[in-house]
């Protein structure tokens, strides 16, 4: 999770910087405003690319976990049924107490 926390922290910083640049560009004129807007666009593009990379990594890990789970259920169907029944029983007991 440490990597994800760093990614989200970096994203907040990038978005904050882009917001500041856009505010500064709004109050500026001429070449300075154009330069500030371009920097904001570049910053947002980097943030978008980082989020796409993170999304791809999460999708790959999710697919791998689903494959492992599927293989386990096919190799040990009765264990899987037992585990599912136990989880359902515990969940039912918890919900029934409310």
Return the domain count: 1
Number of H- or I-type helical stretches: 3
The major β-sheet equals:
none
Q: Tell me the number of strands.
A: 0
Binned, the helix content reads over 70%
Give a description of the structure:
- With 98 residues, the chain is mainly α.
- It is elongated.
- It starts with a helix and ends with a helix.
- α1 runs antiparallel to α2 and α2 crosses α3.
- The protein is built from three helices and no strands.
Task: Please outline what is shown here.
The chain is an all-alpha fold and 98 residues long.
Topology:
Elements (H helix, E strand, L loop, with lengths): L1 H26 L3 H45 L1 H21 L1
Helix pairs in contact: 1-2, 2-3
Keywords for this entry:
single chain; about 100 residues; mainly alpha; 3 helices; elongated
């Amino acid at each position: 999770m440490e990597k994800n926390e760093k990614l989200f922290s970096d994203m907040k910083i990038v978005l904050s910087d882009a917001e500041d640049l856009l505010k500064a560009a709004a109050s500026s004129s001429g070449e300075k405003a154009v330069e500030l807007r371009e920097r904001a666009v570049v910053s947002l593009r980097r943030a978008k690319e980082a989020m796409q990379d993170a999304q791809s990594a999460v999708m790959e890990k999710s697919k791998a976990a689903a494959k492992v789970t599927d293989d386990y259920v096919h190799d040990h169907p009765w264990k899987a049924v037992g585990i599912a029944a136990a989880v359902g029983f515990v969940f039912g007991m918890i919900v029934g107490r409310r």
